[in-house]
Amino acid sequence: MLITIDHLDFSYGIHTIFKDLTYSVQEKERIGLIGNNGSGKTTFFKLLCGELLPDGGSIHLTPSLTVGYLRQDTADQAGRTMKQVFMEAFTHLTAMENRMKAVQEAINHTAGQEQLDAVEELGRLQEKYQNQGGYEYPSRIRGVTTGLGFTADDLKKDIATFSGGQKTRIALGRILLQAPDLLLLDEPTNYLDFQTMDWLETFLRGYDRAFIIISHDRYFLDKVCTRITQLERHRFISFEGNYTEYTLKKQRYDQAEQDRIEKNNKEIARQQQIIDRLRAYNSVQSSKRARSREKKLERMTTIHQFEADNAIKLSFSPKIRSSDDVLTVSDLSKSFDSLPLFKDVSFEIHRCDKIGLIGPNGVGKSTLVRILLRQLLPDTGFIRYGQKVKTGYYTQEGQESQAYGDITLIDAIWQIDSQLSEGEIRNLLARFLFTGEEEVYRTTESLSGGEMARLRLAMLMVSESNLLLLDEPTNHIDMPTKEILENALADYDGTILAISHDRYFLNQIANRIFVLTPDGLRESMGNYDDYYDSLQRAKSAAAEDAAPQMTKTQLRNERKRAKSAQDSVRKLKRELKALEAEIEATDGAIADIERKLGDPDFFSDSEKAQAATQEYETLQEKSNGLLEKWENLALLVESDESD
Asked: What's the pLDDT tens digit per position in 287-314?
């Protein structure tokens, strides 16, 4: 058991974050921690690290537990290179390297017992160094550097020269290199592209220690986690399995909870009715029985109903049906200030297509959508819309609530469709989690980024659009709302083109994937998983095609080369074995002299003692030379065997 939490309470002033929280973390557990924004997930990490203290209860960490914590806001490391930051993970190894150099110097410049002690210490240090990965850490640094999308040259650069997103990736790399007993990762996929996320998923699946990950990336949680913990109503609810398994189990849990609440509240109502009837009899016996039941009723608590996430359903359809041929694009290209973004972009979109548009950051995905909306002109090419096509645009930009002025949520919807009644608008807003009198009459200027995103989606739904152009529609909204939106878009009988980094979202809604590159646009049928599988198949096929096809003569020569290499390895191994025997004999002779030198009477014959001392030093030099020769030979054998 790495962590045990018992009856923990924590509040910020009057705002309760945790109430009577009991939880545990086992060795090698892979936990995904989810919950609404502001529910206390990051606070939980700070409590585990001791940065915050609980108001009540206890947190017990196993002794000597090492913890690596990736924050969303990374500390400034200006004045240091990326390699220096990564090397922080190996200070214990560099300290051992310095000590081994010092001990080797002592061996070279001492004699007698002092030299023997130094030799023994060096042996212990070398074994410890090897066991702790001393010979492996340079390659680990190279692997993490490449995996996180950096180059060897980046290692030499000052941290101050990197962007905020790159600094977060560097902080992630340092923590991964530390390999602590417990990783605490707060939104680790922020600022990662698809390729880097794929690398991180592979890394974490192979991580042989525990981790807890706060993430809104459901695809990522699916790939790496085997337990999902949800922070809900100040407590944790845990489900074994990945995120998809969690959603199924959570639905069953919520239904069982609803049934329990209804049963409890019905029993309270039934008991109250019985008490009222007994009181109505107005007899001594009935009053006594009523008091007895009242005591029982006092021990029962009315449980307020809660609305399960999966209980909210959202659906909408276009008011106007478009033609079957929605959009044709041919040979588009675009540059800014002579800097080319993309060229030769051609595609067709048909009614009811659900297209996910992906590609590297900066390739021009949002620019392409703005060209489709005729907000920008292409350098070359043309766009042709079908009949009765109405576009609706949801963008990352312009999310500021001030853009709509100081109007209520109801008025914001009325601006889009003045024919809707207030009741219809209230029902629509409720489906986007704006419920109650105070909520619907809030002004747009009071909305948070996530609330504004929900309102904009609601406004899009009541428009006349039948071609939805969505730019990162799942940004700034919580997981339950994402799933409500996905279900609605999956059932939508209009057409969708969505830019998204949310792979789970793309899996749920897409039936085609467009990949935008500087040299054009590639298409893959199906959702994101189908695209990823086709990509892996293409890589495998390319690797097979790249493998040289040998003639019979080449195969015969290759077999001869392999046999020659095997013979060479066998010869080296024989030499290695003979060398080991010679080392053993030399060490035995050294041990014999050491036993003699340890006898005080031995020094009574000074000439004999002097000769033995000289022989001892000669054997020491011979032993060092043999060891060096053995190391070089062993490296040759290892190299030949790996070829």
From this structure: 888 888 888 777 776 665 555 554 556 6
Which residues lie below 8 Å from residue 78, measured CB to CB, with a gap of 6+? 158, 159, 160
With a cut of 80, say whether residue 171 has pLDDT above it: yes
The number of beta carbons lying within 10 Å of the beta carbon of residue 377 is 8
Q: Is the pLDDT of residue 201 over 50?
A: yes
Q: List all residues 6 or more positions away from 187 whose beta carbon is below 8 Å from its beta carbon.
A: 72, 214, 215, 216
pLDDT exceeds cutoff 50 at 45: yes
Q: Which amino acid is at 74?
A: T
Residue 401 has pLDDT above 60, yes or no: no
H or E stretch at 536: helix 528-546
- DSSP strand pairing (495-499 vs 354-358): parallel
Give a three-class secondary structure readout of 64-82.
Answer: CCCEEEECCCCCCCCCCEH
**Residue holding tokens 């830019």?**
499
Give Cα separations from 417 to 410, 414, 424 (angstroms): 11, 5, 11
Residue 240 buriedness (CB in 10 A; 0-12 / 13-18 / 19+): exposed
**Overall residue count recorded for the chain in this entry:** 643
Report percent pLDDT > 90 for the chain.
49
Q: Across the strands, what pairs with 394?
A: 470
With beta carbons less than 8 A apart as the criterion, state whether 389 and 322 touch.
yes
Contact in structure between 495 and 468 (CB atoms under 8 Å): yes
Please give the C-alpha separations between residue 428 and each of 305, 394, 454, in angstroms, as whole numbers.
Answer: 21, 18, 11
Q: 3-state DSSP call for residue 214?
A: strand
Locate tokens 């980094």: which residue? 501
pTM of the model: 0.75
Q: Which two tokens mark 58?
A: 């206890």
Mean pLDDT, rounded, of the chain: 86
Q: What CA–CA distance (Å, rounded) separates 538 from 194?
A: 17
pLDDT tens digits, one per residue of 125-165: 999 999 998 889 999 999 999 999 999 999 999 999 998 88
